[in-house]
Amino acid sequence: MRTIAFVQLKGAYAHALSSHQPIVVIRNARVFDACAKARERGVVPGQTLRQSLHCCPDLQTTAYDQVYFQLVAREFLDIFHEHARAVEPLSPHQVFLDFTGTGVDAAALRGILETIVPRYVLSVCAGLASCKFLARTLVGEEEEGGVPIHLRMLAPHQEEQFLRNLSVEKLDMLSDNMQKRLLLLGMKKVGQLMVIPPGELMRRFGEEGKRLLVFLQEGDNNPVKPLYPEDILLCQWCGETIFSLDACLQALKTLVERLARVMRERQVAARHISLLLDGDKGTPILLHRQRSRAYRTQEAMFHNLAAGLKGIWPGFEVSALQLIARSIIPLRRQQLELVSGPGGTDATDRMQQLDNTLMNLAQRYEGEMVEKGWKSKGDRREAMLRYYDPLRFHRKGCENRVQTD
Q: Where do runs of H (alpha helix) occur along 32-189?
């Protein structure tokens, strides 16, 4: 029997912002999180900015910064990682924990949560069950009675009765149209679906009925994915205090060289690069750069980070720089030689490596055309060129037809 917990942390975003006045985090023009002082004055998540200012005129606002809060969340995610087999964060404030075989029960989980509240967050809602669906369903939208730690546990012999009394609107594996259809048919509880013959579910509801049948018979078997701690590459620079932008760019170049060397040794690329500037005065500044195509070359990483650094140069003394590479992607041997081979790094050497790669591909796929910038076979391209006539709008007959029309 598995032991799965779903933990929802409330007030984690506003609690991380050190402010003596009431402060809220704004996302999509609405209050996403609020500190304890703002909640005491009636500000709750989901309000518009005008409603929150009406409740608290001296309210301070800040925009939601996912990259910054991900770094803040590492403090309590590390605590979860010490006790759980797997940690799967859905967001910086929602996380699945797998305690199977660790001996952690409801009392032990409450003790773990007491080390987090109120040090990192204002309150915690947690659910403990045998699968991810039931654990997440146990967690309500809001804490009951303002309790700092609200923990609900579902014993194995209680799961069937709990599932029978559950509303069909809680079945997140079904679409909204499917849920409305079931309500119109008078099926408001999951227990009403359990008495329907399996063949009738599949005949009436198709693929969604099949998915619902698998859930009713086998339950939620989705495992907790060990997504934390993620595979990252970290390079840090600590030296003399930096006073100018040129000195900071030089330190950044040194960091990029170290990171590129590590990436070549591990034969990987990265889609996500973060640069953290830490100074003696002021709060740390985080520069985030993410690309759809992976960072493979040292020049691409440096120019992209340098351009962003010039726009956010803080103007204070920088004592440490930290370069973090996430979304690690393994590279094939040919790709690695193409982008960062030992033969050279200038354009001529890269073109020579490209020619060698194309020659290898031509020998591997005999009978097919392989050329730069074209992925289709040669015969298809030649057939398309036969229908192309560059003078089709300049012939005399075509001009006469246009004039007569």
A: 36-40, 49-55, 66-83, 106-114, 132-138, 159-164, 176-184
